[in-house]
Amino acid sequence: MNAPFPLTRSSVRIAALHDPNEITRIEAYVARHPHGTPFHRPAWFLSVAEATGNEAHALVKTRQGEIVAFLPFDAIHSPVFGRVLASTGFAVGGGLLANEDVDPRSMFAAAEELARRLSCPTIELRGGPMPQEQGGWALKTESHCNFARPLAADDETQLLDIPRKQRADVRKALANDLTVEVGTAERDRQAHYEVFCESYRNLGTPVFPRALLDSVVDAFGAQADILTVRHEGKPVASVISVYHGGAVMPYWGGGTWEARRLRANDRMYYELMLHARRRGCTVFDFGRSKTNSGAYHFKRNWGFEPELLTYATWTRPGTAKRGADPTSSKLSLQIKVWQRLPLPVANRLGPLIARGIG
Predict the structure, then answer these.
(1) 264 with 160, same domain?
(2) CA distance 314 to 114
(3) Nearest to residue 309, comparing CAs of 120, 130, 137, 69?
(4) Does the structure show a pLDDT above 60 at 327?
(5) Phi-psi bin for 65: left (phi > 0), alpha (psi -120 to 50), beta?
(6) CA angle, corner 186, sides to 185 and 192, nearest 5?
(7) How far separated are the first and last CA of the chain, in Å rounded?
(8) Which Gene3D superfamilies match (predicted)?
(9) Is residue 138 domain-shared with residue 184, that is, in the same domain?
(10) What does the angle CA 141 – CA 145 – CA 151 come to, to the nearest 5 degrees?
(11) Which whole-number Å values give the CA distances from 18 to 1, 230, 355, in the listed order?
(12) How many domains does the chain divide into?
């Protein structure tokens, strides 16, 4: 399905993702586009597809041989939630990238055709220009917010930029017997996954397979790292971050129960702000959170202001809408059950389920 062929009479085609030259052109387009994100990069959507056993696809529109629009997808299959064409999978962003003079409608039409060919009854666009609410498309606003703000000029100013109450917690964390390590070696990955598994179980969420996390770290190379906070040598908080366009994005992170007492999560994010600035970053992108959730308020406590996000979904006429909302009564019950699972059981079952959530 990745071989290029026309989907419409326009110049929209399926990207040849097996071709290294095509990948290079796409990476360059994402890098120079002002709204490009880590989740648009082939380094992301190809890696997560391979690691989870799903399929990666992309649409490109060209003009005189140059890419003028790009829309990446992961085709994700779940025995629980069904099939979905997500832009992009296992990400909080994605969607269409297009030059200002490009009409996006041909790309949306091509996405619908691709979904039909792949037997995906649902499309999810997690960013970018949005289609009109017609022909099976629906927009979802105010359900999620993103949080980002500039980094300060030095360590002390960064600390003072944090609101008083949260700053007091960071100062307490700095006074605790904690050490901080940054790297991507096996020691860093193992420590992160140990913390990540416990954190996800405590949240009632099936944990992703470690292969997914490793694949992204490997694909991003120097643009990804792992920051781990240890207490008496034991990892208690850890986060994988990716770097793009002068911004750091802490993405897969968590802490153990012990991390709460030690305020290790507070130390982790403050240290990441300092580390990112030393790497040359100017923006800390805290990512998205569900509106009025615990994570939403946690990020506001750090002085980040919410920016409302809009998502688009397409449901093939005659099919039911995909039901993967964790706030639904059915899934809320499942979350409570999962939180009670013994950690070894959750770690064994979680990756089998999570690879289909997307």
Answers:
(1) yes
(2) 12
(3) 130
(4) no
(5) left
(6) 95
(7) 20
(8) 3.40.630.30
(9) no
(10) 150
(11) 10, 41, 23
(12) 2
Identify the three-state secondary structure at position 76. strand
Token digits of residue 326: 């964790």
User: 91, 92, 124, 52: which is closest to 356 by C-alpha?
Assistant: 52
Distance CA 172, CA 115 (A): 51
d(CA 331, CA 206): 12
Q: What is the CA radius of gyration of the chain?
A: 21
**Residue bearing tokens 């949080």:** 147
How many other CB atoms are found less than 10 A from the CB of residue 16?
A: 18
Q: Are residues 266 and 186 in the same domain?
A: yes
| pTM for the whole structure | 0.89
The residue range of the domain holding 21 is 12-145+310-322
| 208-229 confidence digits (pLDDT tens) | 899 999 999 999 999 999 999 9
Which of 266, 10, 20, 168 has its CA nearest to residue 2?
20
- Cβ count near 228 (within 10 Å): 26
Pairing between β-strand 283-290 and β-strand 234-244 as defined by DSSP bridges: unpaired
